[in-house]
Amino acid sequence: MRCFWVISGKKLAVGAAIVTGICVTAHAFFGGSSAISTSAAKRDLPIYSVERKEKVCALTFDAAWGNEDTEQLIEILGAEDIRATFFVVGEWVEKYPESVKQLSDAGHEVMNHSSTHPHMTQLSPAGMIEEVQGCNDKIEKITGNRPMLFRPPFGDYNDTVVSTLRGEHMYCIQWDVDSLDWKDPAPSEIVRRVVQNARNGSIILFHNAAKNTPAALPDVIAGLKQKGFTFVPVSELIYRDHYTMDHTGRQIPDAGGNGST
Fold first, then answer.
1. Judgement on whether residues 165 and 229 belong to the same structural domain of the protein
2. Does the active-site annotation cover 62?
3. Range of the domain at 243
4. Residues in the chain with pLDDT < 70?
5. Residues in Cβ contact with 258 at an 8 Å cutoff, skipping those fewer than 6 apart
6. Average pLDDT in the chain
7. In a domain, 229, yes or no
8. Which of these is catalytic: 27, 108, 207, 242?
């Protein structure tokens, strides 16, 4: 047996009014799609990559645990006359101060990866500052240079992390090309991932003490050079001012290319 609802014109009009009222109320409550988009656009993002006309990229290495291949990485980069950026944990600095000095003496940037490698989003702003400035003190004591770049451990950040670091006159740095070397893929897979995905202004992530990074790195560099890339440390890649950030965390210089590096 089938049942049918018969709705009079009056009831239909009332129903339509109710539905319209609900939609208007919902729009007012949530701010509408434009408001939601605006809110999303206002997220405080770290720098994942940089809009650059030139085929230039930055090689970065996170140093938090072992130290067995640091000298080898320095040798490989030195043979290619490449300066990279090493984000180091304060505890690693304490454990391997000679490596920190070697990196700095070789012309590489030694930047901040926190003091103890915590999830920064679980800390108060005061705790974030303590983590960062404690590591800065340790690096500056050895290299004579105080870091102005910070990479959050685990890539873990929120608006508060980014804004708190900005208040300390530091830039939060992520990456747009991940070698995934910490998963110990074959060297050829590391090379494929990096060379295939790099673009102008890319920030490329490696780790020291990763099993196959030293074996892959020469071919990564060769592959990128073959595509026309040159290499600079992150501080020379990013814009310090006169820029905006898109929704992917890519720095875009002001109209007319007026970003200052």
1. yes
2. yes
3. 49-253
4. 1-41, 256-260
5. 242
6. 87
7. yes
8. 207
